[in-house]
Structure formats: structure tokens, C-alpha cells
Amino acid sequence: MFGWIEIDLYRKTDIVYQDNKHYPSKSMSFSSPGAAACFVLGASANGWTEWKDKSGRTLDELFRR
């Protein structure tokens, strides 16, 4: 779920559509992997399990175990 900081950031960010993908018009940082995942997916998400590397390993597998 978005925190107030992320909601405010979303409102202030212009999204650019290029090469069939959406990009923020400026660099962004988030308070947690979950906040970033929520921003990208537009819904509540667990960033530790949603973000994966090219091999399919989650952030949880790479950093918390």
C-alpha cells in the first residue's frame, strides 16, 4: 500500500510512454522495495517477492536469507 510520500510522488511524476513501456520522467527513490512495487503495479504488493533478477531469484532470496 502506498504511504503518503509515495502518493504525493505519484501525483507529481509525469509518466512518459516510449518503446511500448512507461517510464517516470525523472529519477525516483522509494522508502522500501514494497513501496516501489506498489508504484509500478498500482496495487498492494510485497516488494521482497515481486522484484526478481534475470534468474528469477527474489530480493528475499538474494538479501534476506
How large is the count of helical segments? 4
Oligomer: single chain
Order of helices and strands: HEEHHH
User: How many β strands by DSSP?
Assistant: 2
**How can the largest sheet be summarized?**
2 strands, antiparallel
Spatial order of the strands in the main sheet?
A: 1-2
Secondary structure class reads alpha+beta
Number of domains: 1
* Helix percentage: 40-55%
Distance between the termini: 24 Å
Uncertain stretches? none
| Silhouette | globular
Radius of gyration: 13 Å
The overall pLDDT, averaged over residues, is 81
Note the beta-strand portion: 5-15%
Could you describe the 3D structure shown?
It is a single chain. With 65 residues, the protein is an alpha+beta fold. The protein has one domain (4-64). 43% of the residues lie in helices and 12% in strands. It has four helices and two strands; from the N terminus they run αββααα. The chain has helices at 4-12, 33-41, 47-50, 59-64; strands at residues 15-18, 21-24. The protein has a two-stranded antiparallel ribbon with strand order 1-2. Strand 1 (15-18) and strand 2 form a beta hairpin. It is globular and about 35 Å long. The two termini are 24 Å apart. 6% of the residues are buried. The mean pLDDT is 81.
Helix-strand blueprint:
Layout: H1 4-12, E1 15-18, E2 21-24, H2 33-41, H3 47-50, H4 59-64
Antiparallel strand pairs: 1-2
Main attributes?
65 residues, two-stranded antiparallel sheet, alpha+beta, 4 helices, globular
